[in-house]
Amino acid sequence: MSNEQKNFCVDAVITWVNGNDPILNAKRAKYMHGDTTLLAKDIAGATRYVERGEIHWCVHSINKFMPWIRRIFIVTDGQDPKVNSKIPVEIVDHKIIFRDYEKYLPTFNSLSIEAMLWRIPQLSEHFIYLNDDLLICRPVTPDTFFPQHGHILCHGHIASQPWTRLLYAIKEHLGTCPVNHVRQMMLAAKFAGYKNNYIHLSHTPHPLLRSTLEHFYTTHPELLIQNIQNRFRNLDHFRTDELCYMLLLKQNKLKIRPVHPVLMRYYSKKGMINLEWTLRRVTKTGSKVCFACFYALDQVDDNIYARINQFVDDLLMEEG
User: Fold this and answer.
1) Is the dihedral of CA 202, 203, 207, 208 positive or negative?
2) Distance between CA atoms of 99 and 123, rounded to whole angstroms?
C-alpha cells in the first residue's frame, strides 16, 4: 500500500443552524431591514432555519453507517447542537472559516458558508458535505463517494443550460422566486468553463476535494468575494459543489450516477399515505436507497413527525 493510500482519510462537514434561537432570529431581522422580499423560501424564509432535531439523526446515521469517517465538523454561528457521537466532533464557528473576511459576517446564506468550507483548519483533502436534514440509511463505503484518491462520484445528471434557462424564464414570468438552486448550478458551471451543460444535482451528501476548491478560489479571489459578500441569497451566488464537479469533469476525475436509486425524499406537503409509500423505498427487500431527506419538517403535522421519528429511531437502533 502506498503512502498516499494510507493517508486517504475522509472527514464529514455539516452546516447547522438552530433557527429557534431568538438571538439568531433577532440578528437576522436586523440585517433584513424590513425587506419582505427576503422571506421567499429560496432566500431567507423561516423554513430554511427552523430545526426539529435533524442534526442528531444525521450525526447518529454517520456513526452507524459511515464509521470510517475520521472527524465530523459542524459549522455554526455561535451555536452548538450538543450531539452524541463516537466519531470525534468539532464545532467550527463561522468566524474561523471567514478569517480575514470577517466584514462579510454575519451571513445567513448557506452558499456563502459552503464557499468557505475548504478553509476549515485540518480538514482532510477528501471530505463529504452534508446538510443537517440528510440521513444515511445503510452502510456505505468511501468508494461510494471517492472511487480512488483524487476522484469523485456524484449523483445527478448532465443537463442543458440553454433549455433550462428557457424553462426558468417561463417559470419566473409565472411568478417563481428568481433565486433558484438550478440557476446557481448553471452559474457555477459557467465559471468552470462550461457554456452548454451543467450537472443537475440533488439533495445528497456531496463529496468534495479541498485542494480543488482552494486552488480555484485562491486564483479567482473576485469570485470568492462574489459568493460571500451578500448576507442573503441572490442571483450572484453559485454552487461550490457544482463548481468542484465541473472542474473535475474537465480532468476526467468525475463519475456521475443516477440519483433516484440511492435517494429517498419526502416533502412536507405530502400526507401520511405518501409518507408510508416513501419509507418503504428504504425498507423493502433489495433497496439501494442510501440517503434520505425529509424536507421542511417544521411544516409537517405532529402525526407525520411522530411517524418519521419512529422510522428514524428504528433505522438507527443499536444492535445487540
Assistant:
1) positive
2) 15
pLDDT beneath 70, residues of the chain: 1-7, 34-52, 176-179, 319-320
Q: What is the CATH number of the domain that holds 283?
A: 3.90.550
Contact 140, 205 (CB under 8 A): no
Write out the residue range of the structural domain in which residue 257 sits. 3-315
CA–CA distance, 271 with 269 (Å, rounded to integer): 7
User: In this structure, are residues 5 and 149 in contact, taking their beta carbons and an 8 Å threshold?
Assistant: yes
- pLDDT of 25 reads 80
Tell me how far apart the alpha carbons of residues 41 and 193 are, in angstroms, rounded to a whole number: 30
134 exposure class (CB count in 10 Å sphere: 0-12, 13-18, 19+): buried
Distance CA 261, CA 155 (A): 10
Run of H or E including 216: helix 210-219
Query: 178: closest CA among 299, 40, 66?
Result: 40
Q: What pLDDT score does 320 carry?
A: 39
Specify if 190 maps to a domain: yes
Q: In what order do the strands lie in the sheet with 254-257?
A: 197-201, 152-160, 254-257
Residue 285 lies in a domain: yes
Number of structural domains, the chain? 1
In a domain, residue 308? The reply is yes
**Cell digits of residue 308:** 418519521
| Residue 320 counted as domain residue | no
